[in-house]
Amino acid sequence: MRVHGNIADNLFIVDIWIVKKQRSLFSEQVGVRAKVRRKGFHVFVMLACVFTLSACTHHSPVTNSPLSSHSEGSLPLGSNAVAEKNTGNANNELDIYVLIGQSNMAGRAPIPDAHKAPLDGVFVLNKLGKWVAAKHPLNLYSTIRKNEGMQKAGPGINFAKHMRQAQPNKKIGLVVNARGGSTIAEWCRNCEYYKQVLTRLSYIENKDSIKGVLWLQGESDQAKPAGYIDKLKQLVVDLRRDLAKENLPFIAAQVNNIPLINKQIAALPTVLDNTAVVYSNDLTAMDALHYDFASIQAIGERFAIEMQRLNGE
Questions:
Q1: Residue 250 maps to which CATH number?
Q2: pLDDT tens track for 255-267
Q3: Model's pTM, two decimal places?
Q4: Where is this chain compositionally biased, Polar residues type (predicted)?
């Protein structure tokens, strides 16, 4: 800008120059804003494309459902899937047995080192609804058990071993849900322990694979033994109804040296068909209530003998 002439002319020229400069700066600002907007729009489009491509190529997430996820060494539920992975034959399903009761069923006998290995062809249902290799202590996976350190050797392993010996082509599944110190009244149909058993069995899609129930309980009822047989009968009736298996085999084992309870347990086959009793008069215990390892092994074997008899094997 050149300044010449009188002051008024010079002021006029300065004013014109300022106006032009302001217009120029405004145009530049508008241009910058437009560029920024265009650049932001391009960035937005690019990000949208990236997210779209990611969504199109990303696999569906695996849920944490016990029916849809499993780790190495465990098997998903649904007996066909279990059998197929183990035998290659989807028609060869697990024979599943339910083990319930109190401390002797949960297992209180110390586990000898020679009996700590998993049992071939036998599985136990864990808390996540997966089949895992069965070994002592089976009640470790109970949803109603006492603390982990109290769970030791129960009758389930030797029961499954003898069932397998009778039918080597069959795989065995055990659902063990015992609670030490429980009374038979706590196993009523509307009680928590009973409901927990049904919850665990709900994971099993094919209810026909449930072949029987083993019961070992009664120690906590010795102070009030009256009516025990009626409660035991009702337990069997309720399980058969809720599982829609009217002839489901049910075997009850006697407890250690409690005559008033054992006499009622012995009467079970006289009041309900397709039931049996495991007798305990020749067995021994480590204390007033809990069977020693040899005796709990014997109960397991006797459970198997009676189950095979009920099934006509």
A1: 3.40.50.1110
A2: 999 999 999 999 9
A3: 0.73
A4: 62-72
